[in-house]
Design goal:
Layout lengths: L1 H19 L1 H16 L1 E2 L9 H7 L10 E2 L2 E2 L5 H18 L3 E3 L5 H16 L3 H7 L8 H12 L2 E5 L16 H4 L1 E5 L10 H11 L3 E5 L9 H11 L2 E5 L4 H5 L15 E5 L10 E5 L1 H7 L2 H4 L6 H14 L2 H22 L4 E2 L8 E5 L7 H10 L2 E2 L1 E3 L7 H4 L2 E5 L1 H5 L4 H16 L1 E5 L5 E8 L3 H15 L10
Parallel strand pairs: 1-13, 5-6, 5-7, 7-8, 8-9
Antiparallel strand pairs: 2-3, 4-10, 9-10, 11-12, 12-15, 14-15, 16-17
Bound molecules: pyridoxal-5'-phosphate.
The site of pyridoxal-5'-phosphate (PLP) has 13 residues, from helix 5.
């Protein structure tokens, strides 16, 4: 019954869309076909449920609702209030957080809200107090000049990009690396693992206002109790960005000292990665930061995306079901199977394995750059992304690594045997790919030659796995 409802809902929606711009309806159909037909190993992607997707396609999209629940700058927000309250309530229950702010449009927005909340809460400035007290008009141009200098010289310590951190954790080209005086911590050059003593030593020396933990490409768990201890010792605010692994926290795979929410002053996340919700962001906070986070609009954000907040509520309701815990455990088990599949075929993994949802394959032993490996795999229907590895000799563009994640294919029902086959297919493609040469005859970091028949045999083998585990199995477009 649900299957036929979903099928007719999408069939009819595409007819309505096609009557206005048929090329968009066609592209939408094609996207479904392409997603169904490819082996998606991008660690930051997933497949949200039809209920989550359908929730985004409504008239909530039309409503402006700047402000907070019960305190809006627009009239007629009673239903948005219902939606936002429910999404926040589900989030608080799901993560055991005192406070949840569900308005951020993306992970980056959530981090900007968190940064400014921390500045507002912790920078001691009479000017800042006046600003918060809404006596903004009393500030002279000279006061603003001082305030800008005070806010602008605060210190942030985050994980470096090549160790697995995110752009927003103080990477120079990102705004976080410009608005803050920044330093970065890396991983141990021998083991590739986070070295808490080294982070502590750096923190003691640098005395950051903000210590950021969390990652996009680190294949291991983090002990957040230790990170909090470091933050407390130097008087820093601990901000954890769990964008990648929020699903493992929600699904109770990361508990105790691996659950960031009780230890962080502020936790940020996306909602569309392992958490499997709509594209969006969220901030969780301890009580002392709640009022500052609540000023996300107008501090950083404009009108919230009400239709997406509604979809967040639906996704969080799904994540509160016990089946989500089984899903989250399977994500981690599958990453283990994938890592074992590589190791037994003599491939090299950064840190020698994984204990979360991703593996970082060092492709230099195949004589390839990440860029060449990514392209060759794509030719064979395997969708991945290239990624720097610690101390990467090929830089952030060509790289030496491939990042692979299990959340999406786990949603399709892949298990141990399927992920072992995935490792086998990837090793086969990379072993049969040769680095190309430049026009001048030197070694190229971009061009490559894929062996005869490799793409065909990989597609045939992965096609079997994909057919056995269809995406949106009941969804048939008429
Ligand atoms: C993906 C990611 C983000 C950014 O999320 P967007 O929704 O793309 O803005 C932020 N932080 C981390 C750690 C991420 O992995």
């Amino acid at each position: 019954m649900t299957d036929s409802l979903i099928s007719s809902a999408y069939t009819q929606a595409l007819e309505v869309i096609g009557a206005v711009e048929p090329r968009i309806a066609d592209a939408t159909r094609q996207e479904l076909a392409d997603q169904r037909g490819s082996l998606k190993l991008i660690a930051s992607e997933n497949y949200a449920s039809p209920a989550v997707l359908l929730t985004m396609g409504t008239w909530f999209s039309d409503k402006y609702a700047e402000g907070t629940v019960g305190h809006r700058f627009y009239a007629g927000c009673q239903n948005v209030d219902t939606v936002e309250s429910l999404a926040a309530e589900h989030a608080r229950e799901l993560f055991g957080a005192p406070y949840a702010y569900v308005q951020p449009h993306s992970g980056i927005d959530a981090n900007l809200v968190a940064f400014w909340s921390i500045l507002a809460n912790r920078v001691e400035s009479p000017y800042l107090q006046k600003m918060q007290a809404k006596n903004v008009n009393e500030l002279t141009e000279a006061d603003w000049e001082t305030l800008r200098a005070e806010l602008g010289n605060q210190r942030l310590l985050g994980m470096s990009l090549d160790a697995g951190g995110h752009l927003t954790h103080g990477f120079r080209p990102n705004i976080s690396g410009k608005m803050f005086h920044q330093q970065q911590y890396g991983t141990d050059p021998e083991t590739g693992l986070l070295d808490y003593d080294a982070v502590a030593a750096k923190a003691r020396e640098f005395k950051p206002l903000v210590l950021v933990a969390g990652y996009s490409a680190y294949p291991r768990r983090v002990n957040f109790a230790k990170m909090r201890e470091i933050a407390d010792e130097v008087g820093a605010v601990l901000m954890v960005d769990m964008a990648h692994f929020a699903g493992l926290v929600a699904g109770k795979v990361f508990t105790g000292e691996e659950d960031p929410v009780p230890y962080a002053h502020i936790t940020t996340t996306t909602t569309h990665k392992s958490l499997r919700g709509p594209r969006g962001g969220m901030v969780l906070a301890q009580e002392e930061f709640a009022a500052d986070v609540d000023r996300g609009c107008p501090m950083v954000l404009g009108g919230p995306l009400s239709h997406v907040m509604a979809a967040k509520a639906v996704a969080f309701a799904e994540a509160r079901q016990s089946s989500f815990q089984a899903y989250a455990q399977q994500i981690a088990d599958n990453a283990q199977s994938l890592a074992d599949g590589f190791l037994k075929r003599d491939a090299r993994l950064v840190t020698g394995g994984t204990d979360n949802h991703l593996v970082l394959l060092d492709v230099s032993s195949f004589g390839l750059t990440g860029r060449q490996a990514e392209s060759a795999l794509l030719d064979a229907g395997v969708v991945t992304n290239r990624n720097s590895i610690p101390g990467d000799p090929n830089g952030a563009w060509y790289t030496s690594g491939i990042r692979l994640g299990t959340p999406a294919l786990t949603t399709r029902g892949f298990g141990h045997d399927e992920f072992d086959t995935v490792a086998e297919l990837i090793v086969d493609v990379l072993s049969n790919t040769e680095a190309g040469t430049t026009k001048a005859g030197g070694p190229s970091k971009a061009s490559y030659v894929l062996g005869d028949g490799v793409a065909e045999r990989t597609k045939a083998a992965s096609g079997e796995l994909l057919d056995k585990h269809p995406l949106y199995p009941g969804l048939v477009l008429g």
